Records
---
Amino acid sequence: MSAEYRIGDVIQTRKPHPCGNDKWTVIRIGADFKIKCLKCSRIVMLDRETFLKRVKKIVQRADNLS
Ligand SMILES: [Zn+2]
């Protein structure tokens, strides 16, 4: 499942961050995922299972893997 996500992808979560934003950039992929809030820039670390549950959809694909 997680192989479909890439660093740099913008994802939408089912529940918004307390700041009101629900879009995040994926900044780390692995046993743990890190996502960065696009509004307040706070970084949240989630285990893979929690990440997969929280993601609603991919908003924008990373353009490149560099
Ligand atoms: Zn936020």
---
Amino acid sequence: MDQTAAPARPRKQRPPPKAAYVDVIEQVTPGLIRISCSGPELAAFTPPKPGAHIKLLFPPPGVVWPPADSSVETPRPPSRTYTPRRFDAARNRLEIEFVRHGAGLASSWAETARVGDRVLIGGPGGGYAVPEDLRHIVIIADESAMPAAGMVLEALPAGSEVQAICEIADAAEERPLSPNVACSPLWLHRGPSVAAPGALIEAAVRAMPTPPADAYWWVACEAASMRRVRDILTTHHGIERTRLHTRGYWKFGDSNYPDHDYGAE
Ligand SMILES: Cc1cc2nc3c(=O)[nH]c(=O)nc-3n(C[C@H](O)[C@H](O)[C@H](O)COP(=O)(O)OP(=O)(O)OC[C@H]3O[C@@H](n4cnc5c(N)ncnc54)[C@H](O)[C@@H]3O)c2cc1C
């Protein structure tokens, strides 16, 4: 036997997704749709950590998922990663906020969703562990990460000093990160094109005169931009890596970007 070979890892067994049904659809801003769904299977949904993610599964038309006969190998339907923005355990109700970014399985589904539609939800998983000594945080997000940024904001210790920077298309996309916690982000208006996503965030971070040395940083946006922001923070501003939580939420030109890009390899 090859003693150097890594032992085979057991295949990850995912719990089956929970089915829920759309009950409210809100056009929050021109570019954002909030969809609430509920159903008894959400009783098994664990309250999510701030910035956690879920998987929304999209079985092709005519495909029943999970399959009735589990002994038959059936490919898992395509899925996309979203934020469980608000979970009401008393009502088994989950809110999800969708950026209308154009053609995309999930974005297009949200644009055409109707009350009563079935939603298949995996997770939640992951999330941000708020450091115990956090007194000051800089939150940086584009539209796709604003739902998670709102969750992080709501999980901070009382009295935390918060700076938020949000890159959005235009003033019509400005909205509170949280209905409960006051926060006045620096809004960066990108304009209608997303050809250079995150460019305004990068410029704003580079231009910070003296970034607070005691701050933690929570950064989530387009993947390539997230890497550049990370680089500006560590090399230009000399911020310790241990103070950074950075995450790519989507990648320009890529479909179904993975849910675990921390940009830190
Ligand atoms: C942990 C985590 C949490 C997330 N939470 C949310 C959330 O709460 N709300 C949310 O809207 N998104 C969220 N996202 C981002 C979301 O997973 C991606 O935007 C995903 O690509 C959307 O799937 P889709 O089927 O609509 O598009 P895809 O089929 O994946 O992509 C189609 C095309 O659209 C482009 N694209 C994808 N997203 C965007 C965007 N935001 N802006 C411009 N172009 C885009 C892609 O580059 C690709 O060219 C999250 C991602 C992660 C990793």
